[in-house]
Amino acid sequence: MNSWEEEFYPLTAEESCYTDLQAVDHSILKWRGLTKENLEKYGLVKEKDSLFITKPLFEMQIDGDNCALCHRHSNNDSCGDCPLFEVRDGVMCTDTLDSELTSPFNKWKVTGDPQPMIKWLEKTRKLVLEKQDA
Hints:
By secondary structure, this protein is mainly α.
């Protein structure tokens, strides 16, 4: 792989939102690319409390604009019928469940830890597959 984008963001969110499964798989791949190991592999830096991953001549803001699930389900700043929203019992990934200290998105934003978001996306993928089989 020549770049982080080739490995973890090979298609845009707009190109990856035709089905829920395609959108969640795109999201999982992107968030796996945001682990410290994968960022370091490509010389990328995630600054504390920033939405950007950067290196010289490359910058990407991590937000709803590059989330395939958001492109598929967002409606006027609402998550609509997003399966991630559904699996989180009607709580957005940027908002905190009663059982959480912070939301999965904000955990990454502040600490650089994408694992909570990956965990929720994997649960979302399971829900999407169960709905397909029903």
